[in-house]
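As a warm-up, study this chain.
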Amino acid sequence: MMFNLPLFASESHGPDSLLTPEELQSQMELILKHTEGNSSVPNPAVFTTLPRSDWCKEREKLMMRTQNRDSLQQVERALFHVILEDTSPQDLSEECHANLCGNGFNRWFDKSMTMTIYENGLSGANIEHTSVDATLPSRGLEYMFAKMRFDKNGNAQSPPDIVMHDLLSPPFRIEWNLDESQSESLLHHQTAHLQQSTNLDMLALKLYTGKGAIKKCRVSPDSFMQMSIQLAFYRLHQSVPKTYETAMTRFFKFGRTETIRTVSNHSVAFTKAMIDPKATKEEKLCHLKKAMKYHSDYKLNAMSGRASDRSLFGLMAAARMSGQKQPALFDLPEIKAGDQLSTSQSPFMFDLEISRGMKIYPAGGLFAPQTMDGYSVYYLFLGENHMTIHIGTYRCHPDTDSKKFSEALQNAMDEIKTLLTKV
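Now compare it with the structure written out below.
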């Protein structure tokens, strides 16, 4: 079921203001009481799992009825969505999968930020990246984690000087008026979504090692992880993957992202040397250091707006928008093919002053692989001595396996640490 929960209310003397934490809790308790004992209700959220053109057609059908048009406006104008789940993930892998996929009816995938609270107290988020990158909602979550307070019974607490409101507008249910064909298609699309979700395998690792051990090797932690991922892939597949790593262009006022292309002649020489029984430790170390330097230099260039992917995309878009035939350059497999390895990381903390008040910390998350024979890998350094790694694959492909890749990756990390350790 969907509800609209007004976040503002009138004070006795003054303008409207945000609800207090206690008031938000009481409003959510009303929703829980109203939905107690009720099963999931099919709703148009599942249409947002469809390809964009198909979802556009379904949205146009919804707009033809007044009630659906009004409900759609409430859903789309909401600042964010909060999902009160009746499920309880048992580990980080289950939680990651649930955050990303849901059940088809409880994620509106067009919404920039969806917060999910599970029955066992775990919480997560689903971020749609069109309007913002992960940095912005991560900063918001960091602020929330640092500022939230609870009493000994788990009830929300407000700062002592906060003003309570005299009258709260209760949350109201968002209703839909669907015809028979729309109702039937909801269940059909949910079945398809659940099949796609089941095909997506996600594995989360919690490691009791972090940046501290890597920095003792006097190398960049990010370059260390990227070379470990390259080595793990090469050991499993004896091939070199087209690789994507996110670079944030925050040096620029309206900067978004660029692409770090990890693979180089040096990284290829390194991975091949690591499985060559004739290669000496000195040769392996030489290739590794050159590969890491190339990666670090490319990363800085990407962050400074001196990489190639966004420029190429702009040229391709300009050609299409001007009605010209797409240049043959963009049909080259090296450019046109998807990334077999899609990787990313994010900072452990954004604002040092705010983060000092945090009592809980993020665990990371994941996205789907770009190609059916590929991997998605996200890693998060949690301080000096801990980190999480999330790995995604498609179950339908016989050559990829999240568990096997996780084992190969951990072995690669150990190998590189040994290689960098002075005897």
